[in-house]
TrEMBL record:
The chain crosses the membrane at residues 53-75, 81-100. This is Early nodulin-93-like. It holds the Pfam family ENOD93. Residues 1-23 are annotated as: Disordered. It comes from Manihot esculenta (Cassava). The keyword Transmembrane applies. Residues 1-11 have a biased composition (Basic and acidic residues).
Length: 118
């Protein structure tokens, strides 16, 4: 069972990419290019801040978790390697996404205020 020849012909005639910049009649404005560059910069800034926060959270949670597993009898009996990894990675992942989200939103807010004044 394949597609019918009518459907195939219709799909072949349809344009593949609906990108508005692909059309030769539309030229993106410099302001639009500036917004795209600013959004990319904000995203990169958010990723950078998120990675820093995740690294700090990893150390801050790993030290007490690994110490507790070796010292506290309950933790020694109940927290296997998987549980330890989940505790550490859960804190790191949460801090990454929270920090990246806050940074991107703050950067977008700054750009919106900049656009209003211009």
């Amino acid at each position: 069972m394949g597609i019918t020849s009518e459907t195939r012909d219709c799909m072949a005639q349809r344009p593949r990419n609906n990108n508005k910049y692909n059309n030769s009649f539309l030229i993106p404005s410099p302001a639009e290019d500036q917004r795209i560059l600013e959004s990319k910069r904000c995203t990169q800034e958010g990723v950078r801040a998120g990675m820093k926060a995740a690294a700090i959270a990893c150390v801050v949670t790993a030290v007490p978790t690994l110490t507790a597993v070796r010292v506290i009898p309950w933790a020694k009996a109940n927290l296997n390697y998987t549980a330890q990894a989940l505790i550490i990675s859960g804190a790191s992942i949460a801090s990454y996404f929270i920090t990246a989200d806050k940074t991107i939103l703050e950067c977008a807010r700054r750009n919106a205020q900049y656009d209003k004044t211009a």
